[in-house]
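User: Design a sequence. Structure:
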């Protein structure tokens, strides 16, 4: 997944903008990986809170 980060301001420095965008490109996947790992870790904490077979067998 890619994205575009726009940095706007008075007297923008092109080199500083490129440096910040490169830093963002390097760190964004790491942050996303941590968030996904935390969600997966919490996924199995309450296994008893799911629909029983009798609820899943009901036709609508």
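Assistant: Done.
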């Amino acid at each position: 997944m890619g994205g575009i980060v726009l940095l706007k301001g008075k007297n923008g420095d092109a080199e500083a903008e490129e440096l910040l965008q490169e830093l963002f490109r390097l760190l964004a996947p790491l942050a996303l990986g941590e968030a996904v790992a935390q969600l997966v870790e919490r996924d199995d904490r309450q296994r008893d809170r799911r629909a029983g077979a009798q609820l899943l067998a009901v036709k609508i």
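The mean pLDDT is 66. The radius of gyration is 22 Å.
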